[in-house]
Amino acid sequence: MIGRLIRTGWRLMRSPLARRGMESAALAVAGAAARRASKSYRKVFKVNLPTTVYVRGSGCEVTVERGGEPDQVELVASLTAHFGLEFVTEQDAEGIYIVVKRKPVIGGAARVRFTVIVPPGANVMLHLTPGSVNLPQLDGKLTIPAVLDQATRLAPLEETPLPKRLQAGKD
């Protein structure tokens, strides 16, 4: 019985039409599984400026945009294989906290992309281990210090004069 089933399966796989049908069915099942394992999340936080948005995550793609309403911070997230993640948001008097932590073993399959839309008067502190940051339409000064060891921390920006060769009118 099993031998006959295997022989029939092999004959079907030689047929281009049957093979294409099986590939389509497999893709449909995979797509449905991915949709079930994906989750979208949107949250709006009412804030009083000045405030700070703290983001801590592992394997995240973070986009930080300036704009939106002057009294709110908006978070829009897309989580794939969300069962492998702990995604927590919280707000207190000090600011807003967004934490993404991968669960052991199953967290490797998870993907997180989120956008944080902050008003111009809000500070943003990122701690990604590892992760990527997108800053569309950046207007202003951004300093990324050298990483000498794990204890290196980002210090507050200080006004530092540009080298003479970079000042306006100099070559």
Record the SSE blueprint.
Elements: H1 2-14, H2 16-37, E1 38-46, E2 51-57, E3 60-66, E4 72-80, E5 85-91, E6 95-102, E7 111-118, E8 122-128, E9 131-134
Parallel strand pairs: 2-6, 2-8, 3-7, 3-9
Antiparallel strand pairs: 1-4, 4-7, 5-6
Keywords:
171 residues; alpha/beta; five-stranded mixed sheet; four-stranded mixed sheet; 9 strands; 20% helix; 39% strand; disordered C terminus
Can you characterise this structure?
With 171 residues, the chain is an alpha/beta fold. It folds into two domains: 2-33; 35-136, no CATH class. Helices cover 20% and strands 39% of the residues. It has helices spanning 2-14, 16-37; strands at residues 38-46, 51-57, 60-66, 72-80, 85-91, 95-102, 111-118, 122-128, 131-134. The strands form two sheets. A five-stranded mixed β-sheet has the order 1-4-7-3-9. A four-stranded mixed β-sheet has the order 5-6-2-8, with no helix packed on it. A hairpin with a 3-residue loop joins strand 5 (85-91) and strand 6 (95-102). The longest helix has 22 residues, at 16-37. It is elongated and about 75 Å long. Mean pLDDT is 77; it is low at 156-160 and 165-171.
